[in-house]
Amino acid sequence: MLIQKMKERNGNIPTTTASTAALDALKALGAKRISLATPYPEELAKLQEEFLRGNGVEVLRTMWMSKRTMPASEVSAETAYSLAVESNEVESQAIFISCVALHTIELIEKLEEDLKKPVITSSQATMWRLLRLAKVNAKIKGYGQLFHL
Questions:
Q1: CB–CB of 20/32 below 8 Å?
Q2: Which of 16, 86, 95, 130 is the most buried (most CB within 10 A)?
Q3: pTM (2 decimals)?
């Protein structure tokens, strides 16, 4: 409904949301069993789990920040990296790092190399989906396995 409302307001331009883009990215990668990393506190992390499960994605493990003393945009790359690594479950098919304000783009390839599985972030998935909606299907280096589909 949100996407439809946005399309009505923007002149029917193809539209997405970060959460829809993330679901599309996970589906494109065939990832049905994931690990979730988020800078949000437990209450919001649990809501994210419910959303993902309600959309057919099994969340095997979730890591969140227990004390949020700063905006997500100020969380260091090292903290985001550690959160993603800690969330990793051996049986997960991908890591999903949720939050568009979290600086994660520069971490994707390093995490994929270290964890040996795809890494999806909210910002990356949104960029990928918007490009696909614009009919841009180029493979782009530096943004993880998602941009090589």
A1: no
A2: 95
A3: 0.90
Structure tokens at 77: 């790359």
In total, the chain counts a number of residues equal to 149
CATH 3.40.50.12500 given to domain 30-148: yes
Q: Tokens 């280096």 — which residue?
A: 141
Q: Cα dihedral angle (129, 134, 137, 143), rounded to 10 degrees?
A: -40
Closest alpha carbon to 131 in 32, 4, 24, 51 = 24
pLDDT digits (tens, 9 = 90+) for 124-147: 999 999 999 999 998 999 999 999
Contacts of 60 (CB under 8 A, 6+ apart): 33, 34, 35, 89, 91, 92
Structural domain boundaries in the chain: 30-148
Distance CA 66, CA 53 (A): 22
Share in percent of the chain as helix, strand, coil (round to 5): 50, 15, 35
